[in-house]
Amino acid sequence: MPQTYTYNIDGKIYHQRPLVIGQVKQLMDILGEITLPAYIDMPGIISILGDKLPSALAVILTPEGVHPKDKDIEALSDELAYAVDLETSIQAVEDFFGLNPIVSVLEKLNGTLGTIQKNMTGQTNSSVSSQEGTLHDGTQSSGDIPSENAKSTSSTEGET
What we know:
Largest sheet: 3 strands, antiparallel
Low-confidence stretches: 125-137, 141-160
Shape: globular
Helix content: 40-55%
Mean pLDDT: 77
Number of helices: 7
């Protein structure tokens, strides 16, 4: 079961789970062209989100017993704007980045696009990686050394 964070906001229970495609679209519609610098702290993120923070929270937080597709984002945004405190907002945004490793997803997409481009131009990964060559010191090489991918782990946190 996916990791879930639970929040008690103004007496109501909300859950945050990894985003589904519909939520990604909603979030993109709300955030538009907002760009986060590579090195930014949590207060900076909250500042950049500005008045879009309640709407972003309405997308990523789901009231208990409600399916994400059934949420009224505008009404929930209005409700959260006056119900969620700053500390809980910061925690929810921190949890969001833990649940949704955006950089990792973008790197995977980049790799997939590279593979598609190679396939469209007639090159394949096997023809590139299996080529033999001579190393700088004159010894034979049997091609690329496969890289190891780090496996990510997730831990379940308690309620906030």
